[in-house]
Amino acid sequence: MSRVYLEALEVVPNGETPEFIRVDITGKTDAEVASIKADVVAIMNGKTYLLRKHFCGHEDGLACRMIEWT
């Protein structure tokens, strides 16, 4: 089974280290995912960041696929 992650990646100038959050949401309910997303958004508050859903294919020998999450 492929893993699914919620990821937040801070957008920073070149040379700076961005804050990065990855949470495994595989098998979580919509309510659990909404709560996790709210927590991640709160942590990233005040930062410029990308929020995305990461469908990881590594366990199945496939490429990963990411979509922007608003």
Can you walk through the features of this model?
- This protein is an alpha+beta fold and 70 residues long.
- The protein has one domain (3-68).
- Helix content is 20%, strand content 36%.
- The chain is built from 1 helix and 4 strands.
- Strands 2-1-3-4 form a 4-stranded antiparallel β-sheet, covered by helices on one side.
- The longest helix is centred in the middle third of the chain and has 14 residues, at 30-43.
- The chain is flat, with a radius of gyration of 13 Å.
- It starts with a strand and ends with a strand.
- The model has no long low-confidence stretch (mean pLDDT 95).
Task: Kindly summarize this structure in a few lines.
The chain has 70 residues and is of the alpha+beta class.
Spell out the blueprint of helices and strands:
Elements: E1 3-10, E2 20-24, H1 30-43, E3 49-56, E4 65-68
Give the helix tally: 1
Strand content: 35-45%
Order the strands across the largest sheet as they lie in space: 2-1-3-4
Q: What is the CA–CA distance across the termini?
A: 25 Å
Shape call = flat
H/E topology pattern: EEHEE
List key phrases describing it.
single chain; 70 residues; 1 helix; 20% helix
